[in-house]
Amino acid sequence: MPRAIPRPSLSALLVAALALLPAALSAQDAETGSLTIELNAQEQVEAGCKLSFLARNGAGGDIAKAVYETVLFDGNGQVERLTLFDFGTLPAGKPRLRQFVVPGAQCDALGQILINGASTCEAGELGADVCTRGLTLSSRTDVEMLG
Predict the structure, then answer these.
(1) pLDDT of 24-59, one tens digit each?
(2) CA distance 3 to 47
């Protein structure tokens, strides 16, 4: 007599799929050779506006140093300031949170942030253009990321 094969529940399948998602995303980043920077949060502090960025290096190798020329625009689209954000070392396949306090800036006055290019990119055999080639930008805040 044939036996019925038990079928996994939908919740068990969902848990398994979610467990595999981070590895799948890391593999996807590695395949595309992308570097992603997400504006994850902003917080008004006494000294100014603290910006928190989540960087993910899927370029297939470590980046020893990445410094980005960054333009901050106000809500009307006017340049508020031009500055450099030093993201430091970005190891391959490992997310890194970097925080920058913009002195005297008001977080609620920011409208857009433009990554104008990399002023420094030390990435060995990956080449200096790895910091900008295929750079993907996103934001979890009301401030739009451009590049």
Answers:
(1) 444 444 444 689 999 999 999 999 999 999 999 999
(2) 69
User: Does residue 10 sit in helix, strand or coil?
Assistant: helix
CB atoms within 10 A of CB 127: 12
Q: Which helix (H) or strand (E) holds 23?
A: helix 10-32
How do 79-90 and 96-103 pair as beta strands? Answer: unpaired
- For residues 122, 125, 131, 137, the Cα torsion angle rounded to the nearest 10 degrees is -140
Backbone angles phi, psi at 4, to 5 degrees: -75, 135
Pairing of strands 35-45, 135-139: parallel
Q: Indicate the SS3 state at residue 61.
A: coil
Contact 47, 101 (CB under 8 A): yes
Model-level pTM?
A: 0.77
Residue 118: partners with Cβ closer than 8 Å, 6 or more residues away:
66, 67, 68, 69, 128, 131, 132
Q: Are 111 and 5 in contact (CB under 8 A)?
A: no
